[in-house]
Amino acid sequence: MTKTMQCKAAVLVEYGSPLEIQTVSIPATLETNALLVRNRMATVCGTDVHLCAGHAMASTSVGKSLPIVAGHEAVGEIVDMNNTEYDSVGNRLEVGDRVIWTHGFCGSCRQCTVENSPTLCERRRGYMAAGPEIYPHLNGTFAEYGYVFPTSGRVRVPSNISDAVASAASCALRTMVHAFDRLGRIQERQSVVIQGAGPLGLFAVALAKESGASSITVVGGPSARLSLATEWGADNVIDISEVPSAEDRAEVTRQLTGGRGADVVIEASGATTAFTEGLGILARGGRYVLVGQLHANSIPVNPSQIVVKHATVVGSVSGAVNHYARGLEFLSRHADSYDWDRMISSVRPLEKINDAIAAMTTEGEIKPAVSF
Questions:
Q1: CA geometry: angle 356, 69, 71, nearest 5 deg
Q2: Which residue in 286, 264, 285, 267 sits closest to 276, CA to CA?
Q3: For residues 130 and 150, what is the distance between their CA atoms, to the nearest angstrom?
Q4: Given this model, what pLDDT does residue 296 score?
Q5: pLDDT at position 297
Q6: CB-based burial, 197-215: b 16+ in 10 Å, e otherwise
Q7: 0.90 cut: is pTM over it?
Q8: How many Å apart are CA 361 and CA 48, to the nearest integer?
Q9: How many C-beta neighbours within 10 Å does residue 342 have?
Q10: Vertex 142: Cα angle to 138 and 143 (nearest 5)
Q11: In what helix (H) or strand (E) does residue 188 lie, and over which residues does it extend?
């Protein structure tokens, strides 16, 4: 490959404005342990929607200054490597292999080492945090080529997982695998309520199903997402367009759980009001894990609910390389039981990236993908 090549990328120049297709440089040299990949597919995440709109997100370093190459979900085919033989879980890597990859975790701060929490890395090298003029130029995944930082974990994709699904796994699934670790074991007698029917919520359905939950209820919409939730294992769905009142949804949840409320609540909606509602439907002694609450809004909360219910409330953000790897293993192991590609609602060329983001913004689609 000629090292002076350039490629197309979707660049966020101004918040609230469409992404611009620009020509950006492909790095002429790779740092030691870095990979250069030809992106095969990228998918659109809710975070991309919020970033492009300029919505503030709590505890995130992305988009601090513009312009930036947008996107953080992708699967790429290796075209060049520098002193790399294996992925992060011991699989030998060769040019032509498909991989997904993490943000860059330094591996030498207290969070990475002593606390074993690399998602809280104090010197995180993140995607969507630098512009195309800054080496290695490919600092986002909405581009024809991608750069895997030397400190980024990377995992080879199993052959029975499609490009688009592997891309979705690089964010939504790894996030939920991590959240289930933080949540702790779901036992067979326990009921689960999932707030949100987007990619996070849908993957949560499958994980809860395979964990053996006694019942799974999804609260969200629109109907296409709820239909897929049912297909993947939800016993009940509550369409927020049909039951718009939080109080009424809480009553329906109590009826579905024998009057107790949910033993486990998983917040995957990002809705500002979700936390208050989730506490309300949580059973005494229940556990509540928050995944989607990345907005910067303040909400009124009565902490006595946590005390009186003896509740466990846990936050979970992003995922480390083990969550990426286990997510791919989960998809591969259950590929005969779930049609994972049903989550991918469309595939558009890079030039139509703004249409894909618009579709995700209006929830008109479940998971739009972009091809190269």
A1: 45
A2: 267
A3: 16
A4: 84
A5: 87
A6: bbbbbbbbbbbbbebebeb
A7: yes
A8: 9
A9: 16
A10: 50
A11: none
3-state SS assignment for residue 205: helix
Beta bridge mates, 217: 193, 236
The pLDDT value recorded for residue 60 is: 52
Structure tokens at 158: 């199993």
Find tokens 């579905």 and name the residue.
256
The pLDDT value given to residue 63: 53
Both tokens of residue 362? 């209006």
DSSP code of 92? B
The Cα 90–Cα 48 span in angstroms is 31
Residues of the chain with pLDDT under 50: 1-2, 59
Predicted confidence at residue 295, as pLDDT, reads 85
> Which pLDDT value is given to residue 2?
44
**Over the Cα atoms of the chain, what is R_g?**
20
CA separation, residue 87 to residues 81, 84, 145, 148, 325 (Å): 11, 8, 19, 12, 10
CA distance 138 to 170: 17
pLDDT in the model for residue 243: 98
Tokens of 249: 């949804």
Joined tokens for residue 302? 């009565």
Instruction: Name every residue whose Cβ is closer than 8 Å to that of residue 83 and which is 6 or more positions away in sequence.
Output: 32, 33
C-alpha pair distances (Å), 357 with each of 15, 16, 73, 192, 367? 13, 12, 13, 30, 10
- CA pseudo-torsion sign 188, 194, 200, 206: positive
Which letter does DSSP use for residue 343 in this model?
G
Residues in the chain: 372
Burial class (CB in 10 A: 0-12, 13-18, 19+), 276: middle
For residues 42 and 142, the answer to whether their CB atoms sit within 8 Å is yes
Cα–Cα distance for residue pair 352/44, rounded to 1 Å: 12
Identity (one letter) of the amino acid at 221?
Answer: G
Identify whether the C-beta of residue 279 lies closer than 8 Å to the C-beta of residue 305. yes
What does each C-alpha distance from 141 to 40, 45, 219 come to in angstroms?
Answer: 10, 12, 31
At residue 274, the 3 state secondary structure works out as helix
Q: 216 with 233: CB under 8 angstroms?
A: yes
Distances (CA, A) of 285 to 11, 82, 274, 301, 345: 47, 51, 19, 18, 38
**Which residue type occupies 332?**
S
